[in-house]
Amino acid sequence: MVKKVILDVDTGSDDAVAIMFAALHPGTELLGVTTVNGNVPLVNTTDNSLRVLDHIGAGEVGVHAGLSRPLVRHDFPAPKRFVRDSDRDMHGTELPLPAPTSRAHPLGAVEYIVQTARALPGEVTLVPVGPLSNIAAALAVAPDLVELVPEVVVMGGAHQFGNETPAAEFNIWADPEAADMVLSAGFAKLTLVPLDATHQALVSLADVERLAGLGTPAGEAAAKLVQRRISAYAAAGATGRDDAAPVHDALCTAYLVRPEVISTRPVHVTVETRGDRTVGRTVMDLRSGTTAVPNCDVAFGADAALFNQLLLETFAHRRGQAGSEP
Q1: How far does CA 271 lie from the centroid of its chain?
Q2: What is the CATH topology of the domain spanning 3-315?
Q3: How far is the C-alpha of 169 from the C-alpha of 173, rounded, in Å?
Q4: pLDDT at 326
Q5: What are the strands of the beta sheet with 296-302, ordered from one edge?
Q6: Is the pLDDT assigned to residue 188 strictly greater than 80?
Q7: 267: pLDDT confidence band, cut at 50, 70 and 90?
Q8: How far apart are CA 38 and CA 54, in angstroms?
Q9: Cβ 239 vs Cβ 90: under 8 Å
């Protein structure tokens, strides 16, 4: 069964790989892309998303610009991990792809999410892989979204370690109030894919060579983007390796078509919204015998070999190319 997907992104190199996966895999129908302030400012997340879709021949997929700042905070907290466009910046302000020829859709992200969910009740899977500002805003104006959307897959959070701070992963830290609102909303199925899982699904330089060797627009773009990620992670010493890096957001789209690519357990998760040292932390109740009711299926493991196989199989396709599901 093909999954109808709205991908909410802050593109971003790993978002770009996720967009290409969702647009090209025959098991997913990418209904639209919504953008949010995050890895780069909103104008760039929107422009980068258009670049990606145009590059793979999917310019007909609508891109809808969303929130340019967090729900509660007056100023977006600039990432502390790296200097923009430095050797530690795995995203860059503009992706190294041709400027887009298509334009963003005039309908905003929040309106698009609500309208689409209401038009297709029970059919739309929401996949937010950036700060959760758009999804929280959509819930604020349309509480019935909880009943309309059967599945939400979130890239964010961490249990063992953070990346923006020792306690917090970037997507959750960037708008913790929005994240807490989404995780506590009561969606029937919410899968949280944190750093604990994504750091187990590394893409190596050898995998990059295989992607480039596909000779397709997606394969070549993915190779270039992942190569940059590997270089940035190596410069920062963030993985303990200099030949591989995580591609966080794409693990969520891979999960849509092959759920076994991650291993999950039901957990009650809340988000810390106060405290200079702990804000943005995903607090996971893993206590034996806890009475807290789980609200998420949290991924603590990932199958790197399967993940890389899915990337290769999917990016071997060209947009519109006939073929059976990988």
Answers
A1: 18
A2: Inosine-uridine Nucleoside N-ribohydrolase; Chain A (3.90.245)
A3: 6
A4: 42
A5: 62-65, 28-35, 3-9, 124-128, 151-155, 190-193, 296-302, 262-271, 282-285
A6: yes
A7: very high
A8: 21
A9: no
Are the C-beta atoms of 178 and 71 separated by less than 8 Å? Answer: yes
Mean pLDDT of 86-112: 89
What are the extents of the domains in the chain? 3-315
What amino acid is encoded at 7 in this protein? Answer: L
H/E run at residue 154: strand 151-155
Structure tokens at 267: 């957990």
Taking each continuous run of H as one helix and of E as one strand, the counts in the chain are 12, 11
Look up 175 and say whether it is catalytic: no
Tens of pLDDT along 123-138?
A: 999 999 999 999 999 9
Contact 63, 50 (CB under 8 A): yes
Residues 10, 14, 89, 175: which is the catalytic one?
10
Of the pLDDT bands very low, low, confident and very high (cuts 50, 70, 90), residue 322 is: very low
Mean of the pLDDT values across residues 233-253? 90
User: What Rg do the C-alpha atoms of the chain give, in angstroms?
Assistant: 18
Q: Is the pLDDT at 88 greater than 70, yes or no?
A: no
> What is the separation, in whole angstroms, between the first and last Cα of the chain?
13
| Residue 195: pLDDT over 80 | yes
